[in-house]
Design goal:
Layout lengths: L12 H13 L4 H15 L13
Helix pairs in contact: 1-2
C-alpha cells in the first residue's frame, strides 16, 4: 500500500454538503472524491506526465 500525505482541509459547511452528496452519488468516500477531483485537475492542467500512472493499491 502506498503512503499518503495527510493534511487538514477547512471547507465551509455548504461546500462540504455538496461534496458529500456528489461523493455519495458516485459511490465514493469524500476523501476518494477529493482525490479524484485533484487527479482530474492535475491531468487537465498538464501537471501529470503521460508516463506517470497510478500504482495499484
Amino acid at each position: 500500500m502506498s503512503k499518503k500525505k495527510q493534511f487538514v482541509l477547512r471547507v465551509d459547511p455548504e461546500k462540504y454538503e455538496r461534496l458529500e452528496k456528489w461523493a455519495a452519488d458516485e459511490f465514493r468516500s469524500i476523501n476518494g472524491q477529493l482525490e479524484w477531483i485533484i487527479d482530474k485537475a492535475l491531468r487537465d492542467a498538464g501537471r501529470v506526465k503521460p508516463a506517470e500512472k497510478k500504482q495499484p493499491e
